[in-house]
């Protein structure tokens, strides 16, 4: 398995990978954390799973053992080469180089019947990406993601919590969210500056326009509540 310190270092050395802080590249090296994430995700062979930020395949490897298919989107061209080399013998993986914040996932979702997303999200795009996915792609009902702890706390905060902000309001409008456990910064290589958190998000089954005047654009509504 990739998810240990020695194998991670070996892959980084063999492929001459130098993790880029600006891209939020921190590779998980703790197998217990990975197993917990997979248990929470409840992956079955009926699932076609989207993974954003495949890295060196730490999570991808385990998802491929459980899911019918894994569609992995990675921004870094060098890491895409690593992923393609590591999983070249498998026929249930699709690896795509793309900027997840700009990519149109609709054709991909329809082609592969994607129903779930499981990801260790790069810190630099996590919050924006989560909202983009929830707003634009109703076919994906369930998300299990590893995010920066502070972001996880803001997303899951309830009224009167100290972390309750406009972000918390936005999340409650479009999803039901559950916080699971904190992940120490020491189980990543290189170590980030802060701890992480595993959260689960269920997209609500309503049509947004049923709840808010259709004249009011979703983004305009978000701007309005940002003053709360």
From TrEMBL:
Keyword Transferase recorded: yes
GO molecular function: RNA binding; rRNA (adenine-N6,N6-)-dimethyltransferase activity
PROSITE patterns found in the cross-reference section: RRNA_A_DIMETH (PS01131), SAM_RNA_A_N6_MT (PS51689)
SMART domains: rADc
GO cellular component: cytosol
PANTHER family given in the database record: DIMETHYLADENOSINE TRANSFERASE (PTHR11727), DIMETHYLADENOSINE TRANSFERASE-RELATED (PTHR11727:SF7)
NCBIfam families: ksgA
Name the UniProt record assigns to this protein: Ribosomal RNA adenine methylase transferase N-terminal domain-containing protein
């Amino acid at each position: 398995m990739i998810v240990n310190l020695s194998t991670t270092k070996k892959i980084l050395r063999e492929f001459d990978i130098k993790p880029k802080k600006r891209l939020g590249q921190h590779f998980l090296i703790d197998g217990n954390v990975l197993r917990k994430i997979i248990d929470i995700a409840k992956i079955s062979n009926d699932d076609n799973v989207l993974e954003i930020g495949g890295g060196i395949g730490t999570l991808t490897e385990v998802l491929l053992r459980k899911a019918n298919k894994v569609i992995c989107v990675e921004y870094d061209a060098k890491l895409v080469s690593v992923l393609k080399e590591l999983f070249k013998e498998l026929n249930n993986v699709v690896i795509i180089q793309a900027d997840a914040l700009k990519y149109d996932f609709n054709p991909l979702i329809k082609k592969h019947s994607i129903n779930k997303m499981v990801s260790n999200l790069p810190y630099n795009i996590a919050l924006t990406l989560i909202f983009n996915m929830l707003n634009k792609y109703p076919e994906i009902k369930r998300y299990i993601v590893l995010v920066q702890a502070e972001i996880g706390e803001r997303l899951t905060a309830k009224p009167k919590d100290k972390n309750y902000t406009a972000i918390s309001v936005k999340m409650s409008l479009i999803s039901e969210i559950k916080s699971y456990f904190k992940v120490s910064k020491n189980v990543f290589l290189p170590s980030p500056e802060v701890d992480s958190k595993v959260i689960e998000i269920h997209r609500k089954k309503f049509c947004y326009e049923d709840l808010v005047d259709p004249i009011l654009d979703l983004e305009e509504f978000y701007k309005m509540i940002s003053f709360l």
